[in-house]
Design brief:
Ion_tolerance_CutA, copper ion binding, Cytochrome C biogenesis protein CcdA, N-reg_PII/ATP_PRibTrfase_C, four-stranded antiparallel sheet, N-reg_PII-like_a/b, alpha+beta
């Protein structure tokens, strides 16, 4: 099981992407958090409001999420970071497996 983190430019975009990944059963769920980001981009520091999106899925679905975000995030270089979960409650892990186990 992994958690995939990305930032997106608008809540509506994050909801659309999350819903599409849910419909395809690539992810079991997602969470949205408003954040303020600052980062280097093309030689200067950029600051903007973004939506941090966290997807919960199987490790083998990373590339599917990454490919989708590359096509639909609206960013030239989208953030796609996965963290492998070391511990989960068994019922929650079973639920994620069931929801993404087509």
């Amino acid at each position: 099981m992994i958690l995939i983190f990305t930032t997106l430019n608008k809540k509506e975009n994050a909801e659309k992407i999350g819903t599409e990944l849910l419909k395809e059963r690539i992810v079991a769920c997602y969470n949205l958090y408003p954040v303020e980001s600052a980062y280097w981009w093309k030689g200067k520091i950029t600051q903007e409001k973004e939506i941090l999106t966290i997807f919960k899925t199987r490790k083998e679905n990373f590339e599917k999420v990454e490919d989708y975000l590359k096509k639909h995030s609206g960013y030239e270089t989208p953030e796609v970071v996965a963290i492998e979960a070391s511990k989960f409650s068994k019922p929650y892990l079973d639920w994620i497996r069931a929801e993404t186990g087509i």
